[in-house]
Design brief:
The protein is α+β, with helices and mostly antiparallel strands and 335 residues long. The protein is built from twelve helices and ten strands.
Length: 335
Amino acid sequence: METVKKVLTSYAVYPLKIEQITDALYRIEDGNRVYALKRSSLTNKSVANWENVFHQVNAQNITNVLPVYLTKHRKLYEQVNGTVYYLAPWVEGNRQSIERLYHCIGNVHAKTKQSRPIDVQLIEQSFHTYKNQCKEKHKQLLTYVEQFESNTYMSPFELLICTHYRDLELVFLETHKRVDQFIQENNEEAVWNYSLCHGSLKFSHFLNENQTYLINWEKAQYENAIQDLVDFFKYETIVYDASAESFIRPFTTYMDANPLTKQELYLLTVYLLDTTDYITLIENYMENITKHPMVYQIQSLQRVYRQLVFGLHWSDYVENEYESISLDDLDDLET
């Protein structure tokens, strides 16, 4: 607590109450305001990038990023014993609205979007390589399933893989199709869009009060906007009761704020259908690398499987909603 008080002194905040919420978050009251003090994971190397986020949102008047207070020396943070702390208003988190969430991050992506030329041939080559890798993974998975089915008794982990196999077949088929479509669109586009991406997008980093705020920009970077969406979908769709429809149906709200091209929609689909984590879990099991109990291994496999099933639902959504829409139509939506 002495360190916390020392940090607060640099902001001219003299606390009446300090409440530790998590290992890295404190709720501060000084009789006038309520603050959130964060002990960050920022380093001397990454803090400059984090500062740039706030310079960017101020310059472009982006109101969805929760602001941070300046110290007495007009710095965005205070460093004590090599650890970076920053102070922000305390916002009570209300029930999440996925429509507001989509509008919030879509607004950030749209306002910070920049287009840059890309090497079309290099990207095409890398995705042909990826398609071949997927074919090898498909063969590898079939080999595992045949081996498991030949056993007199299957372990629960092996049985689960055999149960999943029909859907994994669909995942590989859909991946093949979407990679081909991405390559085709890539040949028609010589530019790539970059936006300010949060880097760790999930429900817990959104706060809804009078408006929706995004917090914790410590992993922010400039990437294509779909990277945030991939992170969000993969993190949030692993829970057993996460319905694909609840994520997909409101997605038009994001598209209204930041329309994605067909190229981006196809690439987002490819990411969501990526089987790397699933195959790695099987390899670790076969090689007896993991020391986790069987229950943990089954839970991990089931979580990744849920992500892939969501990817299949997403692919259907793209096909039903956007396959017939031309790039010119998407450009018209943006304007």
